[in-house]
Amino acid sequence: MKHTRRLVAGTLAAGALALSLTGCGDGADPTERLGRKATQTTPSPSPSASASSSPSGPSGAGPGAAGDEAYKKWGLTAPLQYAPKPRAKPQIPSAKPGRVQVIDRIPVPADDKVVFLTFDDGAEKDPEFLKMAADLKLPISMFLTDSVASADYGHFEKLRDNGSRSTINNHTLTHPNLRTLPFAAQKKEICGQQERLEKRFGAKPTRFRPPFGNYNDDTLRAANECGITQLLLWRVSMQINNFQYAEGSALKPGDIVLAHFRGPAELKGSTEIEMTTRMLRRIQEQGYRIGRLEDYL
To answer: Which one-letter DSSP state was computed for residue 84?
Structure first.
């Protein structure tokens, strides 16, 4: 419990930490934009990487309609493993009055090798990715920016409704650096996207991710007034080929993994599917299962 308190209490400094991990930006390789090469490693395969998939996928069903061979279709060498919904949700301290919770890692037991997939922005809308996500039953927490995603919100609706229980969350109207904006402007960005997502999808999200991982106390207050309860950050980001870590050189239990809806123009010729396949391989190589983030919150 003491470890959990230290972990979550430290998240109020995570806005600065997030700058060392690529959030959202231009099409160049984010590690090059930072002017340094980040820690990117591909650990040796773990024995559990070749194990069978969990009997119960993220939607509560086994491989089922996707078929036991779906992983081969998408370039994986073994079925993905999924973490079942926990019996009890991890204890996360309440937010201060008038603020939202800030979470950058889920406080799971040290031996619970589970990570969570999140995708930001919404610029790329590849129909093949919809097939991949459905076949593999990927539980994806989407954080959508209206200025790029609204051209085809239907794409993300299909991803949400593909049987994996993916979710749609708030990532502002226009993707600004919120720390540079006054309270009123921050509230407009967050509440404005709440309203558009409610109009399009029928409900206001309760979770939010600030662009670039940048936020301040005004952000926490504005998000609260807009109906948000949790601000989600990350400790690991997927670049084009490998992970970039906030600390160390490997995944840790409870890591929230950041990826983006991006295409070849922003991935130096790689496709969204190729990037995602590499990400899933890295997770398998380190012996991790994939959990549904919302089941733990």
So the answer is: P
